[in-house]
Amino acid sequence: MRSLMQNRAGGIHGGLLQFPEPVGAVAAMGLRRKWDASDMGHVRMRVQAHGVNFGKLARGILHRVSEHLSTDVDAMGDESTSNAIKAIALANAFAERECPPRRPVAFVPRLVDRVDDKGEDLKLLRLSLITLPLPTSAKPRDFSRGGVYVPTAVGGAFSPGARVACAEAGLRGSRARALADAYLPLRAETPTELARVALRHWMRHNSAGLAAAAGRPPPFLITRGPPALGRAARALALACAASCSQRLAATGVPPLAVEPRLWERKATSEAEAQNSGVDAESSGSRGRRFVALVLVAEPRGEEHEGKSAAAVPSRPRRPELHRSSPEAGCFHLSGQPSHQK
Q: Into how many domains does the chain fold?
């Protein structure tokens, strides 16, 4: 039986994580060593840009959040950030396939400044892991329409002008035309602009209250490749920080978190299959692989199943964001963050 996740050459294809095969050994797949008492405290995992064992990292993440152990995942740079997010998304894929299914994993991203041993400033993206309630429906999620597509290059596929040109002149049935028709236009080229877009969708989703929002599909960003994933993650860090403001809390908008999901978009036509580099004969079983970043409400402490609110490890509320104003304790998106790139 082919292993669920192969490292390096087998685990990465074209710079994007390959999806796990539907084998029955998922639940039996374990870590190389047992967890001991030294692992029960707060842990920060630093994800490298290359040579990542995705299977081991994803299982470690899933184990810790299932045990309600306080865990941060640190990344620096687009490759490292992409690997960290894909590992968390893979942990969610594992969780779905276990019997009974485990609770999904989400994260709250934060931009962090640190100084290393050599005195050099480091700009990290810290993903604080949390668990979400089990979904009420077992139906697989569909990310084929309605989300915000983050272009793989700045100024790329879906700036407003490119979207219009694609819709008018694009080959009907081509991949670019299909994506332009499926997803919302993106008027953002920097993390700050993209953060405003994400926060606006989040506020609109919760405008009628949490009860009404629970019955609607949550907004999501969708993309592929390290540069776009890194840009989206930095933007969501700004949006998450802004979502904790007193102004939004007064309107009933909850702080947001991010649930990453692996998703494969099937080629719907021969033209799109050829444009995607997929053989027309095999287009029914292969397609373009994406990561969906679903915006979800950050659970309160008492919502963690199996633990009392006091037993759930507390996580700092974005204390390492540098603010120029003491107002409301949140990062203002009107400013220019030092992490923007």
A: 1
Spans in the chain with pLDDT lower than 50: 1-32, 37, 155-160, 166, 169-171, 173, 271-272, 275-285, 302-341
Length of the chain measured in residues:
341
Q: Alpha carbon of 321 to those of 19, 272, 316: distances in Å?
A: 34, 43, 11
Contacts of 247 (CB under 8 A, 6+ apart): 328
The beta-carbon contacts of 266-274 under 8 Å, at least 24 apart in sequence, are: 267/175, 268/173, 268/178, 269/173, 269/178, 270/173, 271/171, 271/172, 271/173, 271/174, 272/173, 272/174, 272/175, 272/178
Per-residue confidence (pLDDT) for residue 22, from 0 to 100: 36
How far, in Å, are 111, 185, 210, 314 from residue 121 at the CA level? 13, 36, 40, 27
* Predicted pLDDT of residue 142: 85
**Is residue 39 a part of any domain in this protein?**
yes
Which residues make beta-bridge pairs with 184?
Answer: 148
Over the stretch 115-127, which tens digit does the pLDDT of each residue have? 877 888 888 999 9
Whether 122 is in a domain gets the answer yes
Q: Using alpha carbons only, what angle is made at residue 78 by residues 217 and 76, rounded to the nearest 5 degrees? A: 110
Q: Which residues, 6+ apart, have CB-to-CB distance to 289 below 8 Å? A: 16, 17, 18, 19, 224, 262, 263, 264, 265
Using only C-alpha atoms, what is the Rg of the chain?
Answer: 20
pLDDT at 114: 85
Measure the N-to-C terminal CA separation of the chain; round to a whole number of Å. 44
The range of the structural domain enclosing residue 69 comes to 12-329
Quote the pLDDT of residue 137: 74
Q: Is 335 within the bounds of a domain?
A: no
| Cα-based angle 220, 76, 34 (whole degrees, multiple of 5) | 90
How far apart CA 16 and CA 86 sit, in angstroms, is: 9
